[in-house]
Amino acid sequence: MDLGLTNRTAIICASSHGLGRACATALARAGCTVILNGRDSAALEETAAALRNDGATVRTIAGDVGDERVQTALIDVADGQVDILVNNNGGPPLRDFRALDGDAIHAGVDANMVTPIRLVQKVIDGMIDRRFGRIVCITSGSVKAPVPGLDLSSGARIGLTGFLAGVARQVAHANVTINFLLPGLFDTRRLAGVHAFNAEKNGVSVEEAAAAALDRIPARRFGEPTEFGDACAFLCAASSGFITGQSLLIDGGAYPGVL
């Protein structure tokens, strides 16, 4: 399927591993020039090399996307023309909410709410002027169904969703969309941390915690990053301009509600 993204430029934050890398891969295959970002320079360059071997045009900016200098560098390397922004950032470590002090709370909100908002502010006017823009924010399935231990992550991402849902309605007239992807349990490095947290909390082995998590998913498997990346690319497609302000939950049916 041609997504109409040939020669578009996409910034994908935190894209050296996991779901961010999957989104970058899908967008590169759709014809985008992809600008990758990550704190681990070696992993970032390995990802870039893999995409270049597939024929993609790739640029990289190493560093914490919460750093204003990194944000500026991402936009500068795109020559100021950002067609697609995929907001992504690592979530805070799983922990009991009682263990969160003020510094930890502020750090979590800054990483998972303030930073993506600042990036949107930097790119949105150019998108409006060019009459094309796609912004996808990777949040979490815990936005719809809060998970113990992810309280800070859930709160920050819910705040981001509420903030940008209003912005989405202000820019839709210019063919600029803002949507949210809510991953459930995907086979990434983050999943190992989830299993370890639940194992310690419930006094079971990591293997038992993983089996219990799997049992709660009707699809009877964990998600593959590639299918998440494909969903991201679809929301960025030229033909997806009538989808905006939406939260797409991808969790294998684990969420039990109808809305």
Give a written overview of the molecule.
With 259 residues, the chain is of the alpha/beta class. The protein folds into 2 domains: 9-184 and 225-249, NAD(P)-binding Rossmann-like Domain (Rossmann fold, 3-Layer(aba) Sandwich); 187-222, no CATH class. Helices cover 47% and strands 14% of the residues. It has 8 helices and 7 strands, in the order βαβαβαβαβαβαααβ. The protein has a 7-stranded parallel beta sheet, with helices on both faces. Helix 1 crosses helix 8, helix 4 runs parallel beside helix 5 (151-171) and helix 6 (189-202) packs across helix 7. The protein is globular. The model has no long low-confidence stretch (mean pLDDT 95).
Neighbour order of strands in the largest sheet: 3-2-1-4-5-6-7
Q: Give the number of domains.
A: 2
CATH class wording of the largest domain: Alpha Beta
* CATH 4th-level superfamily of the largest domain: NAD(P)-binding Rossmann-like Domain
Structural category: alpha/beta
Protein traits:
single chain; 259 residues; alpha/beta; Rossmann fold; 2 domains; 8 helices; 7 strands; 47% helix; globular
Topology:
Elements: E1 9-12, H1 18-29, E2 33-38, H2 41-53, E3 58-62, H3 68-77, E4 84-87, H4 102-130, E5 133-138, H5 151-171, E6 176-183, H6 189-202, H7 206-215, H8 225-236, E7 247-250
Parallel strand pairs: 1-2, 1-4, 2-3, 4-5, 5-6, 6-7
Helix pairs in contact: 1-8, 4-5, 6-7
Briefly say what this structure is:
With about 260 residues, the protein is α/β, with parallel strands linked by helices.
